[in-house]
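ingest -> validate -> predict -> emit
validate: passed (alphabet ok, no gaps, 300 aa)
predict: started
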Amino acid sequence: MNVLKFAAIDIGSNAIRLLFMNVIEENGNALFKKSSLVRVPIRLGNDTFVKGKISSAKIEKLQKTMLAFKYLMEVHEVTAYRACATSAMREASNGLNIVLQVKELSGINIEIIDGKQEAEFINLNKIAEKMRGDAHYLYVDVGGGSTEVTVFNHKEPIGSKSFDVGTVRLLNNRVSENDFKEIEEWLTPIRLDDKEVVLIGSGGNINKIVKLSGKKAKQQLLLNELVKVDTLLHKYSSEDRIKILGLNTDRADVIIHASDIFLKIMRWSGAKRIIIPTIGVSDGIVHQLYADYKKQHIAK
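emit:
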């Protein structure tokens, strides 16, 4: 048995995550097992989506976070790592300068990826293994700055699109009716098909939504159950979601927008249930790191 450890850094619009993953090799198979996750809610999107650039205060927090991540990765002795930034860094006018600053301070190289690359990372999670061949599946990843939707038919991805609709954008009133209309129109062909449509949900908010539903088996959520949670969330203010529902401060104000996005997509696509596999961009990054490692290892 051989155990490797990889690290994935996901610099999102709401939070920055460092995922450590063990890959256990035995008898020609590879088992991916999460080791630990560090999450820092810096909210770069609050600056980018309102001012168009990231403030010096947020840059300092990002730099300190990356420096801390560097030392954590050294202690964990990771085989390899990859750091990817999404919407907020992608759209910030000073995004590339920040990448250079972080590189100089911590040695960590940040890649600014587009929505297509995000979807590709998601597809590396082998989510097709959870699918039946007689249904359409929509993999929906709701982030702070964007929502990625990938359509699967017969377990194969047949279309993918990134929409500038995210929880932090909504929080800052930076999403228009036309932005939602774009999603609805893109989903129209799926709704008109006779096949069952099933959503596969990704992102920290959907995991919390399932927990709030009170279900003991947390693998899936029915449409009517999501409606009940959405109604509950709308019943309370952000402060009451913290005090009464026990949500973290950085989750309490955005979760209602995530719930709304998932609900809209379910209704527009005709889906009646959503599966929650607790995987995301970070997991896909690790799968890519391991694939690259194996190629290099074989080449030697």
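The CA atoms of residues 85 and 251 lie 20 Å apart.
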